[in-house]
Amino acid sequence: MSNLRFRVVEEAFKKKAVPVEMSSSRPSEYFAKYVFSRDKMYKYLPVDVYNKLVDAIDNGAPLERAIADEVANGMRRWASELGVTHYSHWFQPLTDGTAEKHDAFVEHDGKGGIMEEFSGKLLVQQEPDASSFPNGGIRNTFEARGYSAWDPSSPVFVVGDTLCIPTVFIAYTGESLDYKAPLLKSLSAVSRAAVDVCRYFNIDAKKVVAYLGVEQEYFLVDEGLYAARPDLLLTGRTLMGHEASKNQQLEDHYLGAIPERVAAFMKELEVRALEFGIPVKTLHNEVAPNQFELAPIYEECNLAVDHNMLLMSLMKTVARKHGFRVLLHEKPFKGVNGSGKHNNWSLGTDTGVMLMSPGKTAEENLRFITFIVNTLMAVWKYNGLLKASIMSATNAHRLGGHEAPPVIISSFLGAQLTQVLDAFEESESDEILLLKGKKGMKLDIPQIPELFIDNTDRNRTSPFAFTGNRFEFRAVGAEANCASAMIALNSAVASQLVEFKRDVDVLIGEGEQKMSAIVKVIRRYIKECKAIRFDGNGYSEEWRAEAERRGLDCESSCPLIFDNYLKDSVVGMFESVGVMTRAELEARNEVKWEMYTKKIQIEARVLGDLAMNHIIPVVTEYQTRLVDNVIKMRQLFVGEKGDMMTAENVKLVEEISERMKFISERVSALVEARKEANRIDSEREKAVAYHDRIAPMLEEIRYQIDKLELIVDNEMWPLPKYRELLFMR
């Protein structure tokens, strides 16, 4: 194994950047080359079919069967010109990944030959095996039937020889088995609720759109080094490995010059992403060595989620071509920054009004404050749910550390916005709101400028921060499906906006003028949700104590955090906005607990194997060499001199024995603990057992192995070390 390590290190050191063939065309010319975009729809579809499809995309209008046939035929003709021979429904099961089953266009022609055909029926619906995906008991293993149904709002695209059709995935009985279906429902819910509130401000909107910008962080590791690390291969993270003497302490990697091999990878990734209609904008070095970031331009939320899922797949494909492996695990290396996926979220109308941006008039600024405060109310009421939406066995390694958002959800607003909300809270209605008959109004508070420029430093410890015209949900993990967080956030905000309208309408019904009613309700909300606002250090112990006093969810156990999904208030919220039922939420939690258990279980098995079959034999061999040295030295130097000259090696022999004994005993205890936990029937209790008993053992074993790495001869150590993994570029 040590020979493999040095061979791959040598090969990695010699690798050069892979040349990237660049198109002579400008990015705007090859953008969405492999996407059935609106210009291609217009080219390949009859005008009336095109108009009806656009209506379905923009307004959710149903597609008639005859129209679906025409659309399918146009798609096939376009795809055939790109050499496509197969089609696939592309969906997002509860695995945080994507799934696809490829079918050829060919059908019997009735004359002993074949013909290429793609009907509206095949476009709109397929029946993948629903029991083979995590479903939380919604489907029995002997009941395989499930449906994938086309989502017209997300464009069809081509990968290789396959036409990929974004779809929802539902059970035979109608329950959602994926992330897309509830995401679409949450987007519809927040649109309906926000439109109703917009009408208070005379905004002629028919639809409110949730926008999302995703900052994707990731690590790159040389493919040879990756192959020599079974823990990376099987779990996505290093289960052992002592920190390198140099990691990120010099802060010389962030936004630094991009290494040549990485730059070539980024260039090809950018081109490929643009060809798939993914509007990538920013690529740069992140904080940790060999850590990088890619960020696109804002898009409609559903489309942004689909693009992020496709982007992660593209990253893996392009990385292999350049001799890298992409690590999307939230904490692949101990002691350096983990990887997140900051979700920048905002709302805007179909008429072009950005609801999270201040305006030029008092009424526009009151609208701005209305949506900001209602978002804060949603985060306050459902802070436990938002934490549960981003929690996983992998993200748990990242959250709570001093380089990632804390596990307590709070919101940072900045000095200006805080000042405005404080003015609302401290004033009376007749002081702050001056009505001018039917012509207008004046807000007697420090005016929000047309361009909101917050001159205070951004609080990087805040998990949910306002950043000028949007909220940045920073706690989302790098390998997560963003839909999970967006389902929770959009649903919570939708529910809160419905409640806001109800509260305002009550006051109006009692004779209060509209704007006065809005201000009164907003003032009450500001006071009620003040506990969620926090501008200080989210990592401090003082904040944890303060957060508990404020009533915020401070739970740090991943399996217990998932309980938030099943609180009566949360179930009621999801059901009230029509996003998910209690049965769907219970099933999803079963999946979450099961996935948590399985990931810790795999890590435990891999660590046990590496410890006993890779590390212990090498350490034993090194210890034998030390013993031989001691014996020979004492033969050469007898008495006190011999004892003195071998004292250090004797200490090492003893230390090695103690550490190996601990590892061996702990691995055995780990096996027994797994057996005991596996006998638990309840998925929740099993996950809790794995969290409380088994996960801590992994860290205890790792500590001893990392200490041994510092003792054993470098030439003998079998696995690539951190200095090699993080600095071979």
What does this structure look like?
- The protein is α+β, with helices and mostly antiparallel strands.
- It has 3 domains: 31-178, Ubiquitin-like (UB roll); 187-594, 2-Layer Sandwich (Creatine Kinase, Chain A, domain 2), CATH 3.30.590; 595-727, Four Helix Bundle (Hemerythrin (Met), subunit A).
- 50% of the residues lie in helices and 13% in strands.
- It is built from 24 helices and 19 strands.
- The strands form 4 sheets. Strands 9, 10, 11, 12, 13, 14, 15, 18 and 19 form a 9-stranded mixed sheet that branches. Strands 1, 2, 5, 6, 7 and 8 form a 6-stranded mixed sheet that branches. A two-stranded antiparallel sheet has the order 3-4.
- A hairpin with a 2-residue loop joins strand 7 and strand 8.
- Helix 14 crosses helix 17.
- The longest helix is centred in the C-terminal third of the chain and has 55 residues, at 582-636.
- The two termini are 22 Å apart.
